[in-house]
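Researcher: Good morning. I'm working through a list of sequences from a screen, and I'd like to move beyond sequence-only analysis. For each chain I'm collecting a predicted structure so we can compare shapes side by side. This is the next one on the list. No need for commentary yet; just the structure.
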Amino acid sequence: MNPAPTNQSEAFAVTAEGTADLTREQTRAARFVAPSRGVRYPLTTSDVRQARAAAALLGSRVGAVLCGTSAAMHFELPVPPWIGLAPLDSDAVIAVPSGGAHPDRRGVVGRRLVLRECDVTVHAGLATTTPARTWLDCAGVIPLEHLVAMGDVILRRQLATPEELADIVAWARRRRGVINARRALPLLDPAAESPGESLTRAHLLLGGVPRPVCNRDIYHWGIWIARVDLCWLEYRVIVEYDGAVHLEEGQRRRDAARRNQLQEAGWLVITFTADDMRQPWLMVAQVKRALASRTPR
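Model: Good morning. Structure tokens for this chain:
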């Protein structure tokens, strides 16, 4: 088994005798959760997902690491909602070096991967693939626009450089997900400040819309008006992503005043929400019409 993690999840391994502090019977008490054979964590743990990941590693052989979407969530990278909102007792994705015994146990989705020394790190006490390798592995299981959103966050947080992402894509060659990663690479932008904004930009670029500038400060007669999500300066078109479900009335008024100021300054403002993501072709068509209706400066 892997050595005990050093984070605060408090997962621990159990032998036939129990542990150094607990008998076998005591480890079976209701105050402990047994996600799989030979491992436990306290029922009161503050981070169930982290505890289950730590337990999965404890129950695996030496050299096992978190990978894929489990590694992404461990790094707090954005993942598609159907993964990020999955039950907290969902299986952890664990990888072992190629040629090793497949990690087959309850609570674990096992993979055998070619893992170079540079592909593995330790984050918050758990062995995991590096952010760059995690991004590559996720490329095989998440849609392209979500891969762009994840890559934007990796670059913005400086978890990897553009060169490191390009290098791992070049190394991957025919491996799973490499085509998706290769398509995503030129779409990444470290200036993006939210996953919703990244998803919007990815949908537009994939639909053939010219590349926008991310998070630009807009001034009118030398006076700052707003910082906008996406803009096409020569056309004076702005796209904003509104991810808020319930805004307090004061914020709604400020946003309305901000949009009015931008429009008075000659900008055409388009606002998209999460609902628009379900029909991205309509978003693309709307922005293309807006750009076509404006005379480039």
